[in-house]
Amino acid sequence: MQTKQWNVEISITEDDNDDVTTARAVLLADDGTRHESVAHARRNPSDQAVPDIGDELAVGRALSDLSAKLLEDGAEDVARLAGAGSASR
């Protein structure tokens, strides 16, 4: 059995006023393939500043987007291989 390891690195930055949190999620596959997603969370000016909430929202959005990109890439690969198989028959 072959085991593969993919790592996701997440970086979080906040603007000077703690109004906008940005999360960057980078997936590094063991074959060198890199997938990246960036997402933001914006605090309502009338809300109390709670940085952890912005972190959770921004990271969750970045991971959700990364997940969607991976699913799309997989579906495109399947479609491409299915098309190549039917064209060669």
The figure for the number of domains is: 1
| Overall mean confidence score, pLDDT | 91
Q: Please tell me how large the radius of gyration is.
A: 18 Å
Shape: elongated
Describe it.
The protein has one helix and three strands, in the order βββα. By secondary structure, the chain is α+β, with helices and mostly antiparallel strands. It has a three-stranded antiparallel sheet with strand order 1-2-3, covered by helices on one side. The longest helix is centred in the last third of the chain and has 37 residues, at 51-87. The chain is elongated, with a radius of gyration of 18 Å. The mean pLDDT is 91.
Please sum up the structure shown.
Pfam families: Rv2632c-like. By secondary structure, this protein is α+β, with helices and mostly antiparallel strands.
Task: Produce the secondary structure layout.
Layout: E1 7-14, E2 20-28, E3 34-42, H1 51-87
Antiparallel strand pairs: 1-2, 2-3
Question: What are the main properties of this structure?
Answer:
single chain; alpha+beta; Double Stranded RNA Binding Domain; Rv2632c-like_sf; DUF1876 domain-containing protein; Rv2632c-like
